[in-house]
Amino acid sequence: MSENEEKALTVKQAAVFLCVTENTINKWRMNKTGPNFSRVGVKRGKILYRLSELVKFLETNETRFAA
Fold it and tell me: Among the four residues 1, 6, 18, 42, which has the most C-beta atoms within 10 Å?
């Protein structure tokens, strides 16, 4: 795994990377259907997404044919 894939992205940055809104990423997280994330810090903490997890999420949800 490259050093770049270990980069941690904020919710906003992850949304831009996945071409979705922050609201969509937040809904995915609440519904437990989105990419894996980490919560860093005390209490509720800051939510961060590893770039490698976002890439994995895209690969897992890839389709070959239109539905």
Answer: 18
